[in-house]
Amino acid sequence: MRIEILKQLNEAKRARRAVILVTDISNGEDRLAFEGDTLPGLPAEALTKAFLTGKSGLVELDGWSFFLNVHVPPPKIVVIGAVHISQALAVMAPAAGFDLEIIDPRTAFATPERFAGVTLTADWPEDVLKHRPLDAFTALVAVTHDPKIDDYPLVSALKTGCFYVGALGSRKTHAKRIDRLKEAGCSDAQIARISAPIGLDIGASSPGEIAVSILADIIQALRKRPIGAGA
After folding, report:
1. What angle do CA 212, 130, 194 make, to 5 degrees?
2. 74 and 93 Cβ atoms separated by less than 8 Å
3. Residues 86, 64 within the same domain
4. What pairing do the DSSP bridges indicate for beta strands 19-24 and 138-142?
5. Residues 149, 166: one domain?
6. Which residue segment(s) compose the domain that 52 sits in?
7. Distance between CA 33 and CA 45 in Å, rounded?
C-alpha cells in the first residue's frame, strides 16, 4: 500500500469517516472510496452495498476482481435523558452493535445505580458535546421532555448531520419544538429529519416497547441512509 493511501485511510478513521480500500486483484493497485464517490470499473451499487452493510468482500465483474476492505466507524447512540426508556435502550443497544452514552444534568436521574455499566454523564449536553461532539455516525435520542435539556443537542445533531435524530413527545409538543428549532437557525429540511413522535409506529406503550421501536428506527436509518448525502 502506498504511504499516501495509508495516511488518508488513517486520517479517515480518526475523523470517523466511512471509507473503503479498493484493491484491484489483477495488479494490486489500491484506491480509496468515500461515501458518494464513484470509481472507474466498479459499479456504484457495489460501493453503496458495502457502505450500508459494513462488510468487506470480493466483487467480480466482466473479468475484473476487486477486494473491498470496508472501514465504517462503529455507530453510537447518544441519549439525552436518564429515563426508563433509556434504561431499556441501554440494555438492547449493545446487542445490536451500538455504543451508547447517556447525558442528563439531573443528578437525581443520572445515577450509577440506575445505569450500571453504562457510559453516563450527569452534566448539561452543551458542555458534554463540546468535548465529545456528535458526527454522521451518531444517533441522537432526546427523551427528557424538557426543552432546556433537549433543544441544544437536537440543534447540534441536525447541523452536524447525525444519521438519526429522534425526540420524544406528542405532535403538539413537537409543533412547539419546531418553532424553537427554527428560531435556533434550523431549516425546514433539517427539522423534517426528526423522528417525532420518536421510533417506528408499532403501537408501543411501555418504556421497553418504546425502546424497541427507537432501536429499530435507528437501525433502519443506519442501513438505509442515503450514501453521500451531506458528505
Report:
1. 35
2. no
3. no
4. unpaired
5. yes
6. 3-71
7. 13
- Residues 158, 207, single domain; the answer is yes
- Torsions phi, psi for 2 (to 5 deg): -65, 145
Helix (H) or strand (E) holding 103: strand 99-103
Question: Distance between CA atoms of 26 and 111, rounded to whole angstroms?
Answer: 57
**Sign of the torsion formed by the C-alpha atoms of 103, 105, 107 and 108:** negative
Domain boundary among 14, 46, 71: 71
The pTM of the full predicted model, rounded to 2 decimals, is 0.90
Q: What is the mean pLDDT of residues 200-223?
A: 97
Are 57 and 154 contained in the same domain? no
d(CA 167, CA 122) in angstroms, rounded, equals: 20
How many structural domains are present in the chain?
2
Cell representation of residue 82: 436518564
Is the dihedral angle over the CA atoms 16, 221, 87, 197 positive or is it negative?
positive
Q: 65 forms bridges with which residues in the sheet? A: 60
Q: What is the pLDDT of residue 231?
A: 40
Whether 215 and 104 map to the same domain: the answer is yes
Length of the chain: 231
pLDDT in tens, 71-103: 999 999 999 999 999 999 999 999 999 999 999
Position 156 pLDDT exceeds 70:
yes
Please tell me the distance from the alpha carbon of residue 123 to that of residue 110, in angstroms, as a whole number: 9
Confidence of residue 228 (pLDDT cuts 50, 70, 90): low
| Residue 186 to residue 184: CA distance in whole angstroms | 6
Q: What is the CATH number of the domain that holds 135?
A: 3.40.50.720
The grid cell for 185 is 437557525
